[in-house]
Amino acid sequence: FVQRHGVVVAQTTCNQGIGKVVYERLPDQQLQGFDDDIVRDTSPPFRVLEKCQDLCLRDRTASNNLVRTCTSFDFQPGSRIASFSGSAEYEESTCYLTHEQAHPEGIGNLVLVPNSVHFTEVCLSSSRVERECPNRRYVFERHPRKKLNLPAMDLKEVTATNRSECEDRCLNEFSFVCRSVSYNGAAHTCSLSRFTRRTHPELLEDDPNSDYLENTCLN
């Protein structure tokens, strides 16, 4: 932990200080069966999300600030309540913080749950994160068991030992703007592209060995 202006700031470096711990955002996904700590709050959902991201990065419990390892959490935003006063009121937002991660980093399984978002910590070593999106808590949006099946001419294929290395390869690509990447964990192939599921929604396909990753660290 770093003391800055009297405030304890989460020490979020990794990989011997070269990398930075950020999140992957997995929409409509939930980690099954591993809840170490629960946060419930009727503040605006984005505030609750910031609080949960911070607690997990700092490895702290929600209620009494004790040290507890956290590597991922599920977030369920509360809906806005129609109020007559005109001020915005929200139903309870909930976070489930855990030390566990989904396979292959951990033993957990992800299940499809609409309106739930899973956030998992990842160590990225690209200097671009600090340079171009230093305030972003998540850098890649991840869609498990999916790939963007683009023609070979629209892809640059490289090898990567794991998903975070593949994400770094996308961030560090200089010959074109890498907006998305499909990582095949079985073959260790990392397919970089300037296109996304938004430009080619019809090409997002199921693939049990792949993760589709969208780069959000773009100016």
Automatic annotation (TrEMBL):
Residues 14-123, 133-217 form the Apple domain. Signal peptide: none annotated. GO terms for biological process: anatomical structure morphogenesis. It holds the Pfam family PAN_1. SMART domains: PAN_AP (SM00473). This is Apple domain-containing protein. It comes from Diploptera punctata (Pacific beetle cockroach). The lineage of its organism: Eukaryota, Metazoa, Ecdysozoa, Arthropoda, Hexapoda.
